[in-house]
Amino acid sequence: xxxxxxxxxxxxxxxxxxxxxxxxxxxxxxxxxxxxxxxxxxxxxxxxxxxxxxxxxxxxxxxxxxxxxxxxxxxxxxxxxxxxxxxxxxxxxxxxxxxxxxxxxxxxxxxxxxxxxxxxxxxxxxxxxxxxxxxxxxxxxxxxxxxxxxxxxxxxxxxxxxx
Length: 163
Fold this sequence. Notes:
Elements: H1 2-12, H2 29-42, H3 49-61, H4 69-79, H5 115-122, E1 131-134, E2 140-143, H6 146-159
Antiparallel strand pairs: 1-2
């Protein structure tokens, strides 16, 4: 049933078609699904998913690590070591799903992506953002530079009472 549902949604959004791609362009379905799975786990804010996807695609284009926390959580879930929250030491887990240690996308999906995540991975926003951090209210602050990102992280930590 899950495969049938995936195929239906993927067909509905144009990710898979019965006909060859008319404009001749090609895309890598497994990579889009893997990206969508990360987006799915990264944010529940549906309106932010295309922007989150753009950040990850921009990082890939700049040969940056994805640094996706959900991939580390998945890696630890596979080994049974996930404790319910991430700590700095968790970022060293030796797994191809750890996008802090291993460049590029992980070897496969980390979750079953829904329609909005698939759409976001297939049609990401066109941005120059390379960073994002939670705003503490279920959304994110986006940044193009590390300096701007560091300010957003400071604001997040302050909102949590950590500064």
